[in-house]
Amino acid sequence: MTNDLATLVRQAQDDDPVLALRATTLLRREIERLEAVQVRRARVAGLAWAQIADAIGVSKQAVHKKYGRR
């Protein structure tokens, strides 16, 4: 199974439930990784936790809890 996002999206819609589940799991992991990278970039650029939380659509406390102690 490839980690190319476009391929994973297609596979996540496959009729084979095992292939679709594996692709969905890999997509979720990749999205989590990408979000963490973007949060780090935002913090390095000087954005406040409140700004990051607003962009993600969660509370400031939630984003700080998830990413603030890394």
* Mass-distribution shape: elongated
Largest sheet: none
Query: Termini distance?
Result: 30 Å
- The H/E string reads HHHH
Helical residue percent band: over 70%
- Domain count, please report it: 1
Using only CA atoms, what is the Rg? 15 Å
Fraction in beta strands: under 5%
Q: Count the E strands.
A: 0
Written description of the protein model:
The chain has four helices and no strands. The protein has 70 residues and is mainly alpha-helical. It has one domain (5-68). α1 crosses α2 and α3 packs across α4. It is elongated. The model has no long low-confidence stretch (mean pLDDT 93).
Give short descriptive properties of this protein:
mainly alpha, 0% strand, single chain, 70 residues
In summary, what is this structure?
With 70 residues, the chain is mainly α.
